[in-house]
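Obj.: predict assembly geometry.
Materials: sequence records (below).
Method: joint structure prediction, all chains together.
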Amino acid sequence: MNSSPFCGAVLVERAAFNRQDDHLAKKASEYLASLHNQNGAVTRLSQQSFSISKTTTTEEIVVTRLIAHDYTEALAILENDAQLGFSRKLELIVQVLIFCRKWKPIDELCNRLNAFAESQNRNYTLMDEKSHITTRLLLCVAYYLQGRFLDCLKCFLTVIEEYPVVMEQLKDENLDPFCTHSELVTIISISLIVAIPLDNYEDVAQLEDLEVFYQVAGPLTRWLKLLIDTSYCKFLQEWSALDPVYASSFFIAQKWPAAQRTLRDKIYLFYLRISNVIEIPYLSKTLCIKQDIVHDEIVMLIEELELNFVVKGLLVQSQERYDVQNLAKDLFHSGQLLQDKLDLLKVRNENLRSEVQDFMKDNSIGEQRSKSPQINLFEDEADNYISDGENDRSS
Amino acid sequence: MSDGDLAMATGAGYGLANDNDDDEQENYDDFMISDDDENDAEIEMDDASDVSFGEEANEPRVVSHPSNPDSGLVSVARDLVEQKRFDEANQVLGKAALLPQTHATVAAVLQIVRCTYLMWAQSLLSLPVDASGFASVQEAIDSLESALELDPGHDDQASFRSLLNELVPSLDSVFVLNPAWKTNGVSICCAQLFLVRCSRLGSRLIPDLWRSRTLQYEIAVLRLSVEDTTAAERPLVEKLYKSHHTSQEQIGNLEFVLAWFISTSLNEFDAGGISICEELVGSISMLLQKSFTRPLPLMSILHFTKAYLLLDQLSTTNKKVSLRCNAEFWESFKCLEELGNKTSFRDLVLCAFVLTSLLQLGQKTNLDDIIVPFELEQLKILDSLIKQNLEELYQAFVEYNLERFALALAATQMLSFSHVLHPLFASVVRLLQVRILWHRLAVCYSCISLADMQRLLKVGDLPELSRNSVLTILMRSIMDDTAPVYFKLDLTKDLVHFGDEGRRPLTSYTRDTYLSSRDPSGQKSGLHALGPLEASAIPIDEWLDSIGIFNLPPRRLKGLRPLKLLQELKGAREMPPALNDSSSHTTTLKLTEMAAYVRDMLQ
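Observations (raw structure tokens):
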């Protein structure tokens, strides 16, 4: 990967991310101080004569915008620059987009990069080629930051298919990188572990073309071996042990918990795939994960995915979620509900009919009697009817 | 002896050494002459200077100098030496040395050195070497020195080199290929003494050769001890390894160093030289690419080492490694056969070859298309106990007969050095257990406890498979897609249910129906929240595909390029798996959803 003119800005972000790391904070503030002096000089000079400001490169201006989190401005400056070549410009734009986490434009840039590669017929100048490789490796980082692990891996494999020598180069660190080579290797390693199905680890581990990469990425080889041997406990412990390291890396940390969780889910699912009944304490012991975590995560997995499993106490049991019996019960229940409604209506109708009949009967009798008491009677009847109706509704 | 006889001679020497341990003299000759031949042949390749003596008479390129009047006397003396008539030879040479031409004197004195040395060395019968008799040799060496000072000729180097190669031949891979070398302890010690005593000449004329030869013999002398002298030898070996020589010598030295490391492993001395062995294999292969010869002894240990270094990576499922080991062991065995080597090292290589052949069976049940190693021509002609044991082992393996297998295994492991093949034995035993599990147990039982499986898979006196190992076999078979019978575990009672009855989908959804039920708008952009922050979440489809709930992993990914493999994976993610038995579940799911809708409306 090329050195990045923005590594100072990354340093500031890293320091902001790891507030407890005094060493990092000191370096960042030193950097900011040096920038301030430099800039102060530049501004003072530029007030005197405009020609001096030309000595400030586009990169230097963009850095100040990045530190100020003024990404739109930074992008605009880069877009309008005429001195950087196309490849270099793309490389820097991708870095800015990673800063501001704008993923859609990155996908578009990826297309532009491909189109440019096609148009050049892959006859680059050395500089262009370096930029091209760096941009692609940055895309890996961008995919990882979005949690698109498979795309991250695929992007990396595309690079090394064309430039196998990149694997060797990742062994040594570059000066002033955007993200360090070891971070990149870790990002790719994590993506590989997450994206490749358990069943295919062995196929991947045996890829001859990746042998150099496996040598560079020492932990990955070990992880794969443990996973292939189904030593999930040891594997998960190893990952937990890496927690403090990865959680403090500005880039890796962002999707590290998600990667860990996804892998746990993958392993739970494998156990559910091969077993009818399994006890949570057993899983907890076999996988070296705390029992309450196993419980919560298994329950979540079953509920979220509506799996054909139920958790009864400490037992996870295979059970059809949607079997015909349940359906019949459900339909029977619905039938019952319908029947209840019908019964209710029937009763109401019955009531109403008898009321009406009574009324009519009374009416015909009343016609034969004197008029004044008849009216009172009718009013009483009406009151009764209304209160009956209210009772119905409330029941 | 021509070049072609070289292999025969070397082989015969080793063979004889095995059979006639009491006849030391004969051994000595075979041992020395054969190696001498080899070295002469090598030297001729890069040294075109005419050597007028010290060469075997029948070597076509070396003709006695016609203008050399003493050649008659010297060659007469040479013949006498061949016939071990040392005294007469000495007399003849004494005359030749008195001739006026100085270059003739040099030739004669060289012959005197050779003659007196051989006479002295052959008079010794047991260790420790009695150096008192060396006086006459020393005298000859001294006079050679003064003769050379008088007449420094242009072929002195070559003459002395060939003398050294004859009397003190390079030891090459003798540690591995000729376990009887120790019975030649006397000649090894004599040679070492000779090297020490001619140090002035050696370090002046041919310093590199002299130094490396001295180191070789120092190491060999140390190794003659019954105790473990690995620690003392190690610095010498490293010195030898780091010295730079002309390519021919370098191959010999590297062969010696490689053989040293292999023999320490064979003898269970820990030299901890895996990385050095890897380096050695690399540099020897490089040198061989430039060389026209492929010396069989070197090739046999080179192929063996290549496979040996891979043994730790062996597993029942890693086909690539076991195939490569198999091929390398076979190459090594063929070299040893051609050499006529009948040592326990040959048995070891044979054993390794048969065991790796067994690994090639994998889970195959149809053995028709398998090449049975014992049908190979090279093995058919063998007649040895180890072959019988191996054949029994092979038969018991393919017949799933644990008892007979255990017996044959024990018999095979009696083989010396068999500890070297430990990972290989372990893999073969494991493969047999896997095969019995799937081909015998799984088809017979519909339900069996893990404990019973452990009991039924026990091999002889070997410790029982652990419960965890049985589970690992089951789990790995699922992942390799090599489980021929469907199974489900009941991990509360430790039972395994075999058979299709247990086949049930994990979920009734498909990827599409699931995603559309999650997100009514049909977009797949939903994030699966795993943490408190949106930033730590991942796209839900990425999560689903990563945990692999809806898509069965693609199977045929072997031998693909990385990118192609990934494209297959990506394709499998987007392709819904074939709906077979799950279709009725899908219907139930749909009806259930409808019923739920109706019920909700009613309530």
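Conclusions so far: The first helix of chain B runs from residue 3 to 19.
To do: check interface contacts against the pulldown list.
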